[in-house]
Sequence to fold (241 residues):
Amino acid sequence: MTLKAVLFDFNGVIIKDEAIHQQLIEEIIIAENLRPCQDEYREVCLGRSDHACLQELLQRRGRFVKESYLSGLIARKTKAYQQQLETMEELPIYPGLEDLIAKIRLAQLPMGIVSGALKHEIEMVLNRAKLAQYFTIIVSGDDLNTSKPEPDGYLLAVKRLNQQYPQLQVQTSECLAIEDTFAGIEAANRAGMQVVGVAHTYPFHMLHRRANWSIDYLYELELERVQQVYACQVPQKAGNK
Fold:
């Protein structure tokens, strides 16, 4: 088997913005005359889409809202997120990302993003950071009715890879996912992918129990070693639809 593609999560892997998201979510909860809980954000929201996060937070407080109302809350948060990033002189892109991208490009592997974030947010960050050219596919929260830990985003990413690179005939087992949360790791595993857990959000030892590889920093990923592991494995088709 051969490693054929690398798929990145976005928030917590490419950009260090979880604190911004937590603040904005808490502001929405307060504006709804409800009380936020700091620990609850990590439990409910990390690795998941805004839709899934806000819906569960509201339901836990006995608030059941229509989709149109929830969409309005998400739109308000997206606008506030964009405004916050615009005030930053430099975006908080994680150290080592450009080095890792260079390694993957040298290996001639296509790269994509699989995230619950909205496509507008992802493209805004990638364009400003001058990284957009490296990610040939983006699966965002706009594309899905589900959220991680469901595997749908990763399955859709493989479908789009095969549409863009039909000569590769990519199977899910031939993709590597890079994730920072338990929900993201589970989603990639359920899709049939191996996962690198990067300790941006959770400690190394907690990721080590769930991911195939664990690293503290993106630049620590030894791509050649990972490729050797793939080369020693028997081809699989698990996880494809």
About this structure: The beta strands are 5-8, 111-114, 135-139, 175-179, 194-198, 213-215. The domain at 5-16+92-231 is CATH 3.40.50.1000 (Rossmann fold). Residues 67-86 form the longest helix (20 residues). The chain is about 45% helix and 10% strand.
